[in-house]
Amino acid sequence: MADDRPWLAVYPEGVPADIAEPERALTANLDAAVARFPDRVALDFLGAVTTYAQLGDQVARAAEALRGLGVRPGDRVALILPNCPQHVVAFYAVLRLGAVVVEHNPLYTADELAHQLADHGATVAICWEKVAATVASVARVTIVGVDLTAALPLVKRLALRLPLPPARRARTEMRGPLPAGALRWEALVAAASPIAATVPGPGVDDTALLQYTGGTSGTPKGAILTHKNLAANAEQSRVWVPGLRDGGETFYAVLPLFHAYGLTLCLTTAVQIAATIVLLPRFDVGMVLDAAKRRPPTFFPGVPPMYDRLATAARERGTDLSSVRYSISGAMPLPPKTAEVWEQLTGGLLIEGYGMTETSPITVGNPMSERRRTGSIGVPYPSTRVRLADRDDPARDVPAGEPGELLVQGPQVFSGYWNLPDETAAVLLPGGWMRTGDIAVMSDDGFLSIVDRVKELIITGGFNVYPSEVEDVLRKHPDVADVAVVGLPSERTGEEVVAVVVPAEGAAVDAEALLRWARERLSGYKAPRRIEITEELPRSQIGKVLRREVRDRLLA
């Protein structure tokens, strides 16, 4: 093509073709927000507020506290936390030291945590009290326990002390005992002085984050993301919405911060523009609508099921969401009806985007304008190039209009997988091109649509589920001889996890009992929603189970 970026013609006014390459570490964005908007509310956690000046002070003290524990540049520090103010403080405190944040889902099982903690070798784990004992059982690390109730408004903290059944239940949900030798985050930070300005900070090319992903296989791998990667994607996301106002937006963090999508939009991008971040420990419709009355949202990132449920509940309750000007949907296809209902309710725009953990994560988005195109993931972000290549020969582009594997190039593309050079070489090609494993088609004006998936990843509720990981667990059951796990369409979650099981010789598989057994060993979103029994699984000539054929049979 004469112009290798035809999509620039559909960019809204004010969106640049390219961003300036980041020259400062991600922590500089927080420093700038503190300097420019010290009195602006940075965090709202169920009504308890933290200003940017207070956030900056807490980060400085937490960084010094972690330095006192021996954390040094390049050390990995595990964060195993739900959305809460302590999560934000810990994230930036670790980065201030030039250390590396490793995000983990606090709902992971012991086995899931054990693999990842052993892989990255963190020296310190900052974790929710409820998971501290699990961490202690699988890893030798310094554990710093976080009390979620310490971040609540005073009146809610006092209410939790009441000798009433609801208060006891709430305490049990939020708190847990710490194992012997564990430290308390709140005491540690309160006793620390702010870190001295003379203590060196990170460089823009230093590693900032290890984010675990299955990549193109089922084995979780740590994607290495630098300060430059994350800062670039925050800047790309900021300029993609030219109407965003520094110090004037309210972002809703209903997406988990331990997920690449939530981290970039609700943490790094939000801090870059000194937005107020409304933190919710989990997605709960009532909690979101109550918060909207107290502090109306202006920017709302989410996944399609969230928008469906919120729209229905807002209409039933008469909650006004007209403050929402911009919404971004990711992780799964956005149904046109969902977008239509949400835009009618808010009067704002809801667009679909696309990304991967390995790309910090966003590479493609629909224009934040009337030019958005339903059914498409959109066009490449500023400073992002894409190619559609032959699956078997990625050096060769497919002819215009034909489907090909989507390759991306840009400042947000990761530098590789942690300690896995072969896996890195398989996806990172010469010239900085990364293989996504997704098959796409492109229109003449640059809009992309995903038509197939090379990797047999299941995306349920915005979370990645790798079939082989679930299959490995189910094969450990004595009544199971073999199993294939696939994703089937679900209106509620995008896809649901379904397992097709071959019983062991002489065994009679009880599907409900096997489901309960799986739920005890897998995170809730990974556990199968249903189990089908079969005498044999379709296989290739070399004996590999053909998951696609399994899926097709179930759909038929």
Automatic annotation (TrEMBL):
It comes from the Bacteria. It holds the Pfam family AMP-binding_C. The keyword Isomerase does not apply. CDD domains: FC-FACS_FadD_like. Keywords: Ligase. The keyword DNA-binding does not apply. Residues 361-380 are annotated as: Disordered. This is Long-chain-fatty-acid--CoA ligase. One of its GO terms (molecular function) is acid-thiol ligase activity. Gene3D superfamilies: 3.30.300.30, N-terminal domain of ligase-like. SUPFAM superfamilies: Acetyl-CoA synthetase-like. Residues 469-544 form the AMP-binding enzyme C-terminal domain. Signal peptide: none annotated. Residues 31-418 form the AMP-dependent synthetase/ligase domain. Coiled coil: none annotated.
